[in-house]
Amino acid sequence: xxxxxxxxxxxxxxxxxxxxxxxxxxxxxxxxxxxxxxxxxxxxxxxxxxxxxxxxxxxxxxxxxxxxxxxxxxxxxxxxxxxxxxxxxxxxxxxxxxxxxxxxxxxxxxxxxxxxxxxxxxxxxxxxxxxxxxxxxxxxxxxxxxxxxxxxxxxxxxxxxxxxxxxxxxxxxxxxxxxxxxxxxxxxxxxxxxxxxxxxxxxxxxxxxxxxxxxxxxxxxxxxxxxxxxxxxxxxxxxxxxxxxxxxxxxxxxxxxxxxxxxxxxxxxxxxxxxxxxxxxxxxxxxxx
Length: 289
Description:
The chain is an alpha/beta fold. It has one domain: 3-Layer(aba) Sandwich (Rossmann fold). Helix content is about 40%, strand content about 15%. It has helices at about 40-50, 75-85, 100-110, 140-150, 150-170, 175, 185-190, 190-205, 210-215, 245-255, 270-275, 280-285, and strands at about 1-5, 10-20, 25-30, 50-55, 90-95, 115-120, 235-240, 260-265. Strands 1-2-4-3-5-6-7-8 form an 8-stranded mixed β-sheet, sandwiched between helices.
């Protein structure tokens, strides 16, 4: 099911629902660049567990109005607008990759709404004390982040260029386009249904332009909230074979999120969490709804 939600400042948010329409609500924050679209196996698993799975385009992606200069913390107001429209007063959440910081913002800022939160392969703050942010990161992500701080105009031009590449790419092209980020375990799952979903989802998210992707750089600026304020249960998953978001980010978050249950995997990468671990996440969240 697709719907449009209006925010108090007049923007629109495009929302997708899957799973059990009458089930207990779980909201998913997807990665970067991405869209509201839900992966078929995730919706099926949610439905089998009696979960109503919800996702949305962050501002500037897909069918959501842009919000130039947004912070990570700003997503909390958008989630409140979505829940008000859908008649939801309590829900659980998960977020993966670029969705991770947004999930953590909701966990910190919306304790009366969020019952539990699961973070998968989330970035840590760029200025995290004691973290070597780039250690173990694939060269493409290192270069893009450094360019953002060195030459903003050049970084914006590269974002536009990279967007064109994603729009032209087939599912079979994804692996070659992400070569510097793929460890063997991630390369092994980037095929078939997952590759088709990722290619289609990114194309839909980037169709209106690059603004959403550009504004996701909020994750390497101050987030606008304090991790120490998180008081809801948090499950953290991170794989050692992750070059999109290195393992050290997961270790740092595990040491700084109050009361976190950390499952730091010796076997997983980045994409393997998306492909294989969502049923585990849904089971954990189901016990806390």
